[in-house]
Amino acid sequence: MKKSMLSILAIVLGLIIIAFPMVGLIGAQAIIGVAVLLMGVFLLISGISEVDYSPSRGIATVIIGILILILGLILLFSPNTFAFLAALTIYLAGILLIIAGLVTLIGNKDSGFSFWSGVLGIILGVIYIILGTYARDPMVLGALIGIWLILTGIIRLLDN
Fold it and tell me: Can you cite an annotated GO cellular component (predicted)?
């Protein structure tokens, strides 16, 4: 039951992130801030639920989730910080996807979900950094995090 709820949460958050760029009225700061914030929410909830199965992985995921939540709030509500970090934000979000993928991959090598979700996080993190270097549209980058959440949710649902 807990696995299904987390899977659905990931899919819903991914759809929300993808929907925001479609609106076209939200600035890059809000798009990236909301995407990072929702990524942090998912990692925090996922980490809390994983503490029962793997305490070290659960605690690491909770800590990363909290850090990403704080970063998302700062990006969302502090225009000055966003302006200062604008160039680094793209790389930072990609690095955070890679870190989340590594934590998931290393935490439990026996689970199909952990392996494929970890690999997916690492691959999408690298793609995020590459696209961030050349793409000038923040909607593409926000959608990439949404795609990661949706695919992670689907993989988690399909994992036995």
Answer: plasma membrane
Give the phi and the psi of residue 51 in degrees, each rounded to 5: -60, -35
d(CA 47, CA 124): 20
Give the tokens for residue 128. Answer: 């995020």
- Angle formed at CA 139 by CA 154 and CA 65, multiple of 5 degrees: 55
Find, among 21, 12, 13, 73, the residue nearest to 39 by Cα. 13
Check: CB of residue 100 under 8 Å from CB of residue 121: yes
Closest C-alpha to 7, from 116, 153, 134:
153
Who contacts 121 (Cβ-Cβ below 8 Å, separation ≥6)?
97, 98, 100, 101, 102, 104, 105, 148, 152
Q: Do 138 and 31 form a contact (C-beta atoms < 8 A)?
A: yes
Residues 101-155: tens digit of each pLDDT: 888 777 666 666 677 778 888 888 888 788 777 766 666 767 777 888 888 888 8
